[in-house]
User: Fold this.
Amino acid sequence: GKAAETEAALLEQIETCQTPMVVDADALNLLGEKRNYIGRLPKGSILTPHPKELERLVGKCQNSYERLMKARELAKSAAAAPSRASYFELAKSAGVHIILKGAYSAIVTPAGKCFFNPTGNPGMATGGSGDVLTGVVLALLAQGYEPEKAACLATYVHGLAGDVACKKQGAVGMTVGDIVAC
Assistant:
């Protein structure tokens, strides 16, 4: 949610956390309202927006190419930005990885590299699927994987599990439980 106490907890976590964070859902929406905190995220953090969540962080995009270019700019690392910086200046200080969810999800690194995931299917566009991806990313980070490898591997495995579930029962009616089970 976006309640005041939730916002305060998120902002405190960003200020005190010293390891990469995984930021999803309403935390992304809160960052869209508090853009100056983007540059305060711990280096190596991973954002997992769908296209509309990304637009709340970077502004409206006219097409998928512009969306990808803005995601690249957000992920790039550089020196710390001034306190009254524009979104692009803040983005340069973030040094974050971005998993832009969707058909052929894109993984964008702070160096500006883009990887496109070949796994997944339309049946995965179901409530909770992004939460499963976030859980896989967190599990890999907790095991010591570097953020870039964790983001790429989690996205691939998540999509592959969805593909296995689709082969077993079809895309129509697929649930998040089906993805988890596979």
Helices lie at 4-16, 25-33, 51-58, 64-75, 87-94, 129-142, 147-169, 176-181. Residues 77-84 have pLDDT under 50 and may be disordered. The longest helix spans residues 147-169. The CA atoms of residues 50 and 101 lie 5 Å apart.
